[in-house]
Amino acid sequence: MSTALIIEQLLNGLQFGVMLFLMAAGLTLIFGVMGLINLAHGSFYMIGAFACAAVAAATGSFWIGLAASLAAAAAAGTLVEVAVIRRLYDRDHLDQVLATFALILIFSEATRWLFGSFPLYLDIPPVLAGAVALPGGAHYQLYRLAIIGIGVLVAVGLYYLISRTRLGMRIRAGESDREMIAALGVDIGTLYTMVFALGAALAGLAGALVGALQSVQVGMGEPVLILAFVVIVIGGIGSIKGALVGAVLVGLTDTLGRFLLPKLFTVFLGPADGATTGAALASMLIYIVMALILAFRPKGLFPATA
Amino acid sequence: MTLLQVSGLESFYGASQALFGVDFSVGQSEVVALMGRNGMGKTTAINSVLGLIRPRGGGVRFIGRDIAGMQSYRIARLGIGLVPEGRRCFPNLTVRENLVAAARQGPWTLTRINSLFPRLEERQDQYAHSLSGGEQQMLAIGRALMTNPQLLILDEATEGLAPVIRQDIWAAIRRLKADGQSILVVDKTLAELLPVADRCFVLEKGRTVFSGKPDELTPELQDRYLGV
Ligand SMILES: Nc1ncnc2c1ncn2[C@@H]1O[C@H](COP(=O)(O)OP(=O)(O)OP(=O)(O)O)[C@@H](O)[C@H]1O
Ligand SMILES: [Mg+2]
């Protein structure tokens, strides 16, 4: 096992983690600030990927496609918040889960109806094609490095927005006493719509970025959604910092687990049994990590409210 | 000039009626006391003015506009600053953040709040949940003033505080009055409330039963409406 291979796997884990962060950031804000469980968050991921693939195919530009993914996901987010989600803030979690599950079905069928059942493909933009030489003689895809960079930028931007701006203060104030912040003259309803649209746009961005690495198809959002829930539970619901740390932890654990565990078990059990046992355990690994973290820190690594 | 005019106000909690006809008014630069025993409807009346409870009958006019039934953020933006019962500071925001989060342009700035309540400046980077009750009360008043309201509403701003702190709060209220701030005060300590008030209204079981100058509220009336 060469260092080059390990570095590559580490970066893959980091890139996966960053992509999970883009999903988890919106989810944790919406859950933490508004108390809403949004299962349809994965649909925004899918909408972003489809919008990017379709617009990039039509215009020949990945970047116009990327802009379209943000716009489409934010627009879908705004529409859904105003039409449906608003009515759910004061309802219990079961109602929220049912209603947003219905939204998944609606979005999936609508996408199938618009684009058909065959996957779309999205090419990596030419400027980001190719690989970069890394220390140890490895080469790594430039595009994946760019995803890591974008994720870091988004994380810094969001952290600044929430902790330093007046908008962020109002969002946090609404988290603790929604009625009071309204009684001080803040239009909290519109603020929630904006937060929801921002979360949707970030999920759309994640979908578009990943769309160039995988095929773009209906149902692509839900597996990522489940992982994003694991991330926000590990990180502490409502915390952007927690979402980032949790996402990187899950990304690295999952990627390295799938890479290393089969090799490890091969040593003990021989190639045939070792590989299957290792792979089975690897797919459970993040849930084991989550259980361990919750056993010691029931509110996650960075509980949002003090 | 009349800032706030409440007439025949009726409000409900679900099916049970809490206000049966409340009348009071606050004029420009006037300090008005809204009084009554526990559970007589003072907080309900204030919350109905601010749109936190939707009044079902009667009228609420602020600077000549009918505000009954408007959303509370719109009412607040017209120029009403609420210091609510129970303070309700945002515990997960720092003192400074509590003050600036909902601030609007006007003569009240952080600097002026800090000179009104020097304790707040000392604690500006502390989270509100770590403050004492008196400091939280000062913060709630400062937070309302930072919205630069035409009318400040104080609901039980001295309740449950140590005597020294109560004196600080009353001193601040007198200073605001001297500056010409219009204030509606709910408080149970008559000894401090009556000297500062220009007019008084007394509620009993959701109705206004007395209105007049503080010296017209004779000991007999006080005993009848406010005694325990
Ligand atoms: N959330 C509520 N749900 C139902 N009834 C309520 C609610 N809040 C108040 N009430 C009732 O409405 C009436 C008026 O209460 P309110 O809180 O306005 O009185 P108050 O004059 O402010 O009393 P206090 O001096 O104790 O603050 C009381 O009978 C009370 O029991
Ligand atoms: Mg009260």
What distinguishing features does this structure have?
heterodimer, A: 306 residues, mainly alpha, two-stranded antiparallel ribbon, B: 228 residues, alpha/beta, six-stranded mixed β-sheet, four-stranded antiparallel β-sheet, 10 strands, binds adenosine-5'-triphosphate, binds magnesium ion
Provide a descriptive summary of the structure in words.
Chain A: Pfam families: BPD_transp_2 (PF02653). Chain A: GO terms for molecular function: transmembrane transporter activity. Chain A: One of its GO terms (cellular component) is plasma membrane. Chain A: It is found in: Cell membrane. Chain A: Keywords: Amino-acid transport, Cell membrane, Membrane, Transmembrane, Transmembrane helix, Transport. The complex is a heterodimer of chains A (306) and B (228). Chain A is built from eleven helices and two strands, in the order ααααββααααααα. In chain A, α9 (221-235) packs across α10 (240-269), α9 crosses α11 (271-296) and α10 runs antiparallel to α11 (271-296). Chain A is globular. Chain A is mainly alpha-helical and 306 residues long. Chain A has helices spanning 3-34, 41-59, 62-83, 93-115, 142-164, 166-176, 178-183, 188-211, 221-235, 240-269, 271-296, and strands spanning 131-133, 139-141. Chain B is α/β, with parallel strands linked by helices. Chain B has a single domain, classed as P-loop containing nucleotide triphosphate hydrolases (Rossmann fold), CATH 3.40.50. In chain B, 34% of the residues lie in helices and 28% in strands. Chain B is built from nine helices and ten strands. In chain B, the strands form two sheets. A six-stranded mixed sheet of chain B has the order 6-7-8-3-9-10, with helices on both faces. Chain B is globular. The termini of chain B are far apart. The complex binds adenosine-5'-triphosphate and magnesium ion. Residues 42-43, 85, 155-156 of chain B line the site of magnesium ion.
